[in-house]
Amino acid sequence: MGNACNSAPDDPIDGASFSAGKARGLSLANMAVGVNEATLKMQQRGKIMAEYVWLGGAVTTGGFDIRNKTKTLDFSPKSPEELPIWNYDGSSTGQAPGSNSEVLLRPIAIFSDPFRREPNIIVFCETILPKTHDPIATNTRGHAKAMFDQKPELVPWFGIEQEYTIMAADDATRPIAFDEDGGEPAPQGPYYCGAGYDSAICRPVADTHYKACLYAGITISGINAEVMAGQWEYQVGPCVGIESGDHLWISRYLMIRVCEMLGCNVTFDPKPAKGNWNGAGCHTNFSTKPMREDGGYKVIIEAVEKLGKKHMEHMKLYGEGNDRRMTGGHETSAMDKFSYGVANRGASIRIGTDTEAEQKGYFEDRRPASNMDPYLVTGKVFETTCL
Questions:
Q1: pLDDT in tens, 248-264
Q2: CATH number of the domain that residue 180 is part of
Q3: Model-level pTM?
Q4: What is the CA radius of gyration of the chain?
């Protein structure tokens, strides 16, 4: 079994050319990647490129709608508050009517730009109304932050496990490990944490994304190949409160940019392949300060039982199409049933063996889908368990 994205440039972010032979109808030969080394060495005469990134209201790549445009600055900002508020045409992103289309971009976080390199930056923004500066209807960040701001002394930690699947360049609906004619790769088994050309499919994508996140300043804690062929996972966290959603969204943006650069597609769909294949989740690990302290296990159980009482409320917020993934098989619980247990990956909530042994720590909510909105999920978990 071959796969076109298993060849890599020596330094993809530096912009070396990436070529590979045809595999399953996909050819990346002669496709340029990144920005070439000569461009990176050009002087910017004291100017800085600030890539403003925000969430739109439609669907573009991967099932999300992450938009971006660039502004030239003549200074190096030390905080988001120093950056100018900008605007865009909301009628082109499904967020405003053409008769009143202006939406404002308020900077909320700054990251180093792994593609244009320092001193250039990526500026994550939230979308707000022009006159009142209130969040627009598709801005879910404001509500989540309001939840966390009620009890900051709890210091909520989140660790989010983002699964994704690499898709063919010429067909964004077909996983890259699957043939054009409907043929499937070898059954699940060797892919999870696997090594080798036939097992670790598209490792260059995962590795390049990992380094891009580290360069940018994302709190990324690791990566691994997942159960389905061509499926990977990376972990963001631990992050405190609202920062978790900010870092996850920018990590998703970087993944889309890496795939753009390497000539493939990515999907965050929770069930990208029908049949005997694992879906893709976004397991959310959670703890508060009392849970991490001595005697915290009692607090954990109390929190988990609160989640059980509002199970279906949570499921409505845990990702589009999650019912296709949560069937009770392939390491999932049933969509309409709540359960928890120690070391049980078939439960709604998994409590780690180390947490049970130490009687403190965290728990894992395994229900969120790979396409979940982290602001909705983290805010809801905190609201249910702590407010």
A1: 999 999 999 999 989 89
A2: 3.30.590.10
A3: 0.92
A4: 21
